[in-house]
Structure prediction request, 254 residues.
Amino acid sequence: MTPLGRRVLAEGLGTALLVAAVIGSGIAATRLSPDDTGLQLLQNSVATGAALVALILALQPVSAAFNPVVTLAERALGAVTTAEAASSILAQMVGGILGAVLANLMFELPAVELATTVRLGSGIWLGEIVATAGLVLVVFGAVRSGRAETVAYAVGCYIAAAYWFTSSTSFANPAVTVARMFSDSFAGIAPGSVLPFLLTQLLGGGLGLGLVLVLYPQAGDLARRAAGRTDQAHDDGSTQLSEPHRRTPEEPHR
Prediction:
């Protein structure tokens, strides 16, 4: 399989399993604790955070964004090419929907059932901006520290916490948001609520990327290093490899 094929497979598989964890743990929580919404949210948030850590650790050597906003930020920083970003986002969207179907079937619900939970309001939309901006900052802040291996733990902890401190319960992911529309369960979101979530997530992602560029001017180089790249991405999807410096026989050692 080509490197691009492996990337697409990793992004689709990872997003599918992430959505299955989000929706599946929500369904399980409502069945285990039917009269305690706070406990349901705790169970859902812990399961989601733990799944994120595990999936990122497993798939990070290939590709582990699982989120179109993160992928777009990677493209803006030159960590991936346009072709890689487009393919990854498509895989994330398809994988997310398949993950929702899988979760529904595991709990013997209809494979596809449009959600009825309305999530509208200025406070909720502000919460999504905060959640998504914070996620982008956490991801690339961890990379900027030169410790890309900590990204999994940083992201898992942040999302688990953001379930609680944001009014929207931190969707912060367009692929997951669209997928959750197909499960009428604890984690569901009504179709009419999806578009405002997507717009606020893109806004939050842009804000987070702006903060990254201000706080960490070298973020682009570090993002490419975290992605295992020594090449420069171009808008047409091509790349130009960075050649190492070679000494001529007459050139002295430095």
Observations:
- The first strand starts at residue 231 and ends at 233.
- Strands lie at 231-233, 239-241.
- Residues 3-32 form the longest helix (30 residues).
- The chain has one domain: 3-227.
